[in-house]
UniProtKB/TrEMBL annotation:
CDD domains: ALDH_AldA-AAD23400. GO terms for molecular function: oxidoreductase activity, acting on the aldehyde or oxo group of donors, NAD or NADP as acceptor. Keywords: Oxidoreductase. InterPro entries: Ald_DH/histidinol_DH, Ald_DH_C, Ald_DH_CS_CYS, Ald_DH_CS_GLU, Ald_DH_N, Aldehyde_DH_dom, LUC3-like. This is Aldehyde dehydrogenase family protein. Belongs to the aldehyde dehydrogenase family. It holds the Pfam family Aldedh. It comes from Orlajensenia leifsoniae. Residues 18-460 form the Aldehyde dehydrogenase domain. The active site is at residue 243.
Length: 469
């Protein structure tokens, strides 16, 4: 078990190139993150390639036992991991935030270890017999983002290891210490070399994307970076799973009870202070309940405290970096100029220390306003009034993204009918953004391709092999 101080000392750079890491809530110094390069990437690849055959030689059950022990190690250091995550990423300890993210890491490992992927008999008719097996790919590269630097990394690392692969991970340069800390704790248990990590900037990511040693790359991040990875990896015909940008729509039907759905609507949009790929980012509400839904959301916003993450009272935090703060600020200002009515928020303290942007709800906004059609990735929700359901569905489908969406209704059957018409990888009914290790997750259109989670996720990090006898 590590304390926060011992964990930080273990991952903070003391020699070589380093980057100063500041707390996004206070501006205070956290530590120094190592800045590694292509040489360190090559060394990690060499160790992983050497370690992978022995790891793959273990049975699924044996690898599952190891993954459960890794989960135990994460649990033993969970409070230290959560504190580091809160300080570096900004998310509060409490609420659906740092402690929940760390807890999800160990839960994901155990669920992945317990999944069954038996040999599938595809034909046995007395004349032909064929089985479908799934074999390890070999080496998998994982490039993870700064919004959920531990949970998203685990969601990719856990199935890759379970299927007998070795992994080299690259955490975001914005949350390097969190990524290094998670791997450090995991490597207390894993065989040496099976899981490597390289902390670097774009040059490391570019080298990873073009390296022929990787049989697959898993990336979560922007659509623009995803396109560059596709281009960079094409020469090696590298397999890819890409979870890219989203601008998730929610459609509220006229039969809802606004008070009953307000809490879940709010957290669908503002979990992780809106810094979630599959957050609710544009809300279409029928005119019959529009004002009541707006009022109910304002009430929830007013009762939801934002502040420094280590304060146990807070459940919303700062934006992780100033670049993202500027994006949110620009889009909210565009909403104001375009005639949007700010119900709450929209008035940041531009001279304050920290990257706090107030919880913001904007009503009566044009559906083509930049705050609606661009991904804000922060605590600002545009609320669009509609009267015609077909028009609302057309607006929901009108952008070149399709990660998630939601439909809100007292009639589940009606909601499912609407959901079937929405172009998104996942459509939630009366909730938004929830993920589960057993439920496949992935996007369509510009939100990427490939599936994570569940048995489909295991298959995505393996090579299908048919044995035909």
């Amino acid at each position: 078990m590590k304390t926060y101080r011992t964990l930080l000392e273990h991952v903070t750079s003391t020699t070589g190139p380093a980057r100063t890491v500041l707390d996004p809530a206070t501006g205070g110094l956290i530590g120094s993150a190592p800045q590694q390069g292509v040489a360190e990437l090559e060394a990690a690849i060499e160790r992983a390639v050497a370690a992978q055959p022995a790891w793959a030689a273990l049975s699924h059950e044996e690898r599952g036992v190891v993954l459960c022990r890794v989960a135990d190690a994460i649990d033993a250091s969970s409070e230290a991991l959560a504190e580091l995550l809160s300080r570096e990423q900004g998310k509060p300890l409490n609420g659906p935030n740092a402690r929940v993210e760390v807890g999800a890491c160990s839960a994901w490992l155990r669920a992945t270890a317990a999944m069954s992927l038996p040999v599938e008999v595809v034909i046995d008719d007395g004349e032909s017999y064929a089985e479908l097996h799934y074999r390890p790919i070999g080496l998998i590269g994982v490039i993870s983002p700064w919004n959920f630097p531990m949970m998203i990394a685990i969601g990719q690392i856990a199935p890759a290891l379970r299927m007998g692969n070795a992994v080299v991970a690259k955490p975001s340069e914005y949350t390097t210490l969190s990524g290094l800390a998670l791997v450090s704790v995991m490597n207390e248990v894993l065989p040496a070399g099976v899981l490597g990590v390289v902390a670097g900037a774009g040059d490391v990511g570019a080298a990873l994307s073009t390296h022929p040693a990787f049989g697959k790359i898993m990336f979560t991040g922007s659509t623009g970076t995803g396109r560059r990875i596709i281009e960079a990896s094409a020469g090696n015909i590298t397999r890819l799973t890409l979870e890219l940008g989203g601008n998730d729509a929610g459609i509220v039907l006229p039969d809802v009870d606004p008070q009953a759905i307000a809490h879940d609507l709010f957290w669908g949009a503002f979990i992780n202070t809106g810094q979630t790929c599959a957050a609710l980012k544009r809300l279409y509400v029928h005119a019959d309940v529009y004002d009541a839904v707006c009022d109910a959301l304002v009430a929830v916003a007013a009762a939801t405290p934002m502040g420094i993450g280590l304060d146990e009272a807070n459940v919303l935090g700062p934006l992780q970096n100033r670049m993202q703060w500027n994006v949110v600020d620009r889009l909210v200002e565009a909403a104001k100029v375009g005639g949007g009515r700010v119900l709450v928020g929209g008035d940041p303290d531009r001279g304050a220390v920290g990257n706090f942007y107030p919880t913001t709800l904007v009503a009566d906004i044009d559906p083509q306003n930049p705050l609606v059609i661009e991904e804000q990735f922060g605590p600002a929700l545009p609320i669009v009034r509609y009267t015609d359901l077909d028009e609302a569905i057309a607006l929901a489908n009108g952008l070149d993204v399709g990660l998630g969406a939601s439909v809100w209704s007292a009639d589940t059957s009606a909601a499912r009918s609407v959901a079937a018409r929405i172009q998104a990888g996942t459509v939630w009914i009366n909730s938004h953004g929830g993920v589960h290790p057993m439920i496949p997750f992935g996007g369509v259109k510009g939100s990427g391709y490939g599936l994570a989670c569940g048995v489909a996720g295991l298959k995505s990090v393996a090579l299908p092999q048919v044995i035909n006898s």
